[in-house]
Amino acid sequence: MAFRTVVVTKHCKINFKMNLVILTTNEDTFQIPIADIDVLLIETTQAYISAYVIMELLKQNVKIIFSDNHGLPIGEINAYGGNSSRNSNIRAQTNWENKSKNGLWQQVMINKITNQSHLLAEFEKDNQGLLKLIDEVEIGDQTNREAVAARMYFSRLFGDGFVRRADDEINAKLNYGYQILLSAVAREIRANGLLTEIGIHHDNAKNEYNLASDLMEPFRPLVDRVVKLHETEEFDLEMKLALVDVLNMSVRVNGHEAILTSAISEICRQAFDYLNGVSKLPSWQVEV
């Protein structure tokens, strides 16, 4: 099973030979078995990758993510194939019932707000308001407890003056980490032969990742924790690597320990089984 996230940060030539991805810099050469690679993140515009290695990576369902000249993820490449039931899965996806989608969204929100509450407690911040909100999450979160929780959560975690989506380093770190997380969830959705565009709650015609935006929610506090721990540090290469490393962190999911990428796979599989009428509504226990 692939487990490595390979990050290219400097001038580099990326080639392929004998099932090895070969990365050549001015100082050294690295050879990595292609079967080990889960994600290739190209963080610099000074990297050169051959069409042949791109083809081989896509064959192995490796996600290739490119960053812009500011080092922020800007796009990715995914294979066309990868799931022999894709057509039938997409037809089923377009017929998911609203009742099922709303029930699943309730579970997503309960897990997200629970993890936000635990993270506040971890940093010795007041979490009482969020604990109360957990019991108030309705099917489909019709009263938008998510937004109420967010207003409490971010101001308590990062201070009263913090404004989510402002143009500052904390938000830049959060956005970078969320983008990495979004890519991991989107990869799992595509591996299951589904469209990322069709969500259970997010429904933005301009968002190609509505479903990934839905299912990543319980895991966001993992990124928040890393940003909080490095709150005063510069948003440099070391900080970016720490955020990429979130994919390798251990979480508890449904009572057992798992690396984040494996936990995402399990959560997605349970969600899709429920939405397709194969199983009952999952009572998730995602602890980050």
Fold topology:
Elements: E1 4-8, E2 12-17, E3 20-24, E4 29-33, E5 37-42, E6 47-49, H1 51-59, E7 63-67, E8 73-77, H2 86-94, H3 98-122, H4 128-134, H5 145-158, H6 169-191, H7 210-215, H8 220-229, H9 237-244, E9 250-253, E10 256-259, H10 260-275, E11 286-287
Parallel strand pairs: 1-5, 2-6, 5-7
Antiparallel strand pairs: 2-3, 3-4, 7-8, 9-10, 9-11
Structure description:
The chain is of the alpha/beta class and 288 residues long. It has 2 domains: 4-77, Ribosomal Protein L15, Chain: K, domain 2, CATH 3.100.10.20; 87-287, Up-down Bundle (Four Helix Bundle (Hemerythrin (Met), subunit A)), CATH 1.20.120. Helix content is 44%, strand content 17%. It is built from 10 helices and 11 strands. The protein has helices at residues 51-59, 86-94, 98-122, 128-134, 145-158, 169-191, 210-215, 220-229, 237-244, 260-275, and strands at residues 4-8, 12-17, 20-24, 29-33, 37-42, 47-49, 63-67, 73-77, 250-253, 256-259, 286-287. The strands form 3 sheets. It has a 4-stranded mixed sheet with strand order 1-5-7-8, with helices on both faces. The protein has a 4-stranded mixed sheet with strand order 4-3-2-6. Strands 10-9-11 form a 3-stranded antiparallel sheet. The chain starts with a strand and ends with a strand.
